[in-house]
Design a protein that fits this description.
The protein has four helices and no strands. By secondary structure, the chain is mainly α. It is globular.
Length: 92
């Protein structure tokens, strides 16, 4: 369904494994929760089950044009870095 929608918009891809990930998710914000539900209703199985939580470590790594995996040491704190790694490694 997602690939067909993209092709209908003139965006062609030879890949057939495109998935949608909700990112910067904050479970405490009702807007985030509701929007994620709506997106899941539209795209169903094309959306990953796990959402990417909001993470200061990812934001800080991005400012350095790096991923959190590329960091030699935590930018924020070890606790926040470890939590970020749990978020990233839990993506399905």
């Amino acid at each position: 369904m997602l690939v067909e929608a993209l092709e209908g918009a003139g965006m062609y891809s030879s890949y057939k494994f495109l998935k949608i990930l909700a990112n910067d998710m904050d479970d405490n914000k009702s807007t985030h929760v509701e929007l994620t539900k709506k997106i899941r209703n539209v795209y169903g199985p094309e959306m990953l089950n796990t959402v990417m939580k909001d993470s200061a470590e990812i934001n800080n790594a991005g400012e350095r044009l790096m991923t959190a995996y590329e960091l030699k040491k935590p930018i924020t704190s070890k606790k926040i870095h470890d939590r970020c790694m749990v978020y990233l490694n839990s993506l399905n």
